[in-house]
Design a protein that fits this description.
The complex is a heterodimer of chains A (259) and B (133). Chain A contains 11 helices and 7 strands. With 259 residues, chain A is of the alpha+beta class. Chain A folds into 2 domains: 142 residues, no CATH class; 66 residues, no CATH class. The longest helix of chain A has 21 residues. Chain B is α+β, with helices and mostly antiparallel strands and 133 residues long. Chain B has a single domain, classed as Beta-Lactamase, CATH 3.30.450.30. Chain B contains 5 helices and 5 strands. In chain B, strands 2-1-5-4-3 form a 5-stranded antiparallel beta sheet, sandwiched between helices. At the A-B interface, helix 5, helix 6, helix 8 and helix 10 of A face helix 1 and helix 5 of B.
């Protein structure tokens, strides 16, 4: 039933059921929230990706004061998107492009980390309002495609979550602009999500650049912090941690490319 | 003020237009699609044109000289891509946005009926108005 407050099914399965039922409401997973209206996805939020407000204000496309004024004036009416356009702060096309970018970015992370659906709250709407609703099937298919795309570039998911380290001699100036800007922020401490946030970029697009950098040997996941000396498993700690994995992954990559 | 669909429908009014897409060139996702797609598969067209677009945007050799284009040159290595075949013109026009966005307009033109020069100028205009209003 779509009105069930709790569920332990997989998020893709439940989203499919909600779409078939033309449901309206908010479905939470461990890493994000899907907002549905009449069975279509109208918005997705995830803590792992910057939201629409971050993308618009931190890039300078909309002044922060203008963004918050729109939220205050139209938030309760669930018409913030419409308000941004009607007040002349953003064109319809710019709002749609930025909104879809944020929606698919968040959907990837809302489904990627743990596909379990936690809770569906019927009737709940997002304050942004409907900008360009997307069929559930499109969102699920695109999230799967994105997972495959990252895997094809460089099959090491640790790049997406671990603090990242720059290889000696890696020079951002020699790279395409987006990749160079991404590499410049790899400092041994920041994770992919933190680099995306610092650049006001979508996180998935930053993951693509980081996996390409990893494939070129310019970036590696940093070894786990030395603050947890677990001497009972000596073969997994210290600086030797990533070397065997890297070698294995390179062999895997070679084998995949040879197919 | 045009949104994605209005821009695509406007592109379809060009002589010889068979199909139009708005595509993200990093993910390969079609954000909007109108008309036919080469091979009948808009998603495959989006993914494959995105790969062409990415190669063009990552080319340092073909980018404009820094003197000629100022600081914008490095961030805007290409404006459009044109691919011709025996029966078609394929046009890609990059959309410039202030926020982080990596999209282009794609237009598939029938070679017998299409006017490449006109389509290129109009597509550039549509790409500007899509984000500027």
């Amino acid at each position: 039933m779509t009105t069930a407050p709790c569920t332990d099914g997989s998020a893709p399965d439940l989203l499919g059921t909600l779409a078939a039922d033309h449901a309206t409401g908010a479905l939470s997973t461990h890493s994000g929230i899907f907002y549905l209206a009449a069975g279509h996805v109208v918005h997705v939020e995830s803590a792992h990706s910057p939201d629409l407000g971050d993308l618009l204000t931190r890039s300078g496309a909309v002044a922060p004061a203008g963004w918050w004024e729109a939220v205050q004036r139209a938030g309760a009416l669930h018409r913030v998107g419409r308000q941004l356009v009607d007040s002349g702060r953003l064109s319809t096309g710019a709002l749609e492009l930025c909104h879809l970018g944020a929606l698919f970015d968040a959907a990837y992370f809302a489904l990627a980390h743990d596909g379990t659906a936690l809770r569906f709250r019927p009737g709940v709407a997002h304050w942004l309002g409907a900008v360009r609703p997307v069929p559930v099937a499109t969102v699920l298919r695109e999230s799967r495609r994105r997972r495959d795309l990252l895997h094809r570039i460089w099959p090491d998911p640790a790049v997406d979550t671990a603090p990242l380290r720059r290889a000696a001699g890696a020079d951002p100036a020699e790279l395409p602009p987006r990749r160079g800007r991404t590499l410049a922020l790899v400092d041994g401490g920041r994770t992919a999500a933190q680099i995306a946030s610092a650049l006001a970029c979508r996180t998935f697009h930053t993951l693509v650049e980081l996996r390409r950098l990893a494939a070129d040997g310019l970036v590696t996941p940093a070894p786990p912090p030395p603050a947890t000396p677990v001497h009972s498993v000596p073969e997994t700690d210290g600086a030797a941690w990533d070397e065997p994995d890297t070698a294995l992954l390179r062999r895997l990559l070679d084998a995949l490319e040879a197919l | 003020m045009p949104g994605i669909d209005e821009s695509l429908l406007e592109a379809m009014r060009l002589p010889g237009a068979r199909g139009a897409l708005v595509v993200d060139w990093i993910s390969g996702l079609a954000l909007g699609a109108v008309g036919e797609a080469p091979g009948g598969d808009a998603e495959a067209t989006a993914a494959e044109t995105a790969e062409l677009a990415r190669q063009a945007m990552e080319s340092s050799t073909l980018a404009p000289a820094v003197d000629g284009a100022g600081s914008a040159g490095k961030d805007r290595p290409a404006e459009d891509l044109i691919l011709t075949s025996a029966d078609s013109y394929h046009l890609l026009r990059f959309v410039v946005t202030t926020f982080d966005s990596t999209v282009f307009l794609y237009l598939w033109l029938d070679r017998a009926d299409g006017n490449l020069a006109l389509a290129r100028i109009r597509l550039a205009d549509m790409a500007d108005r899509l984000v500027l209003g």
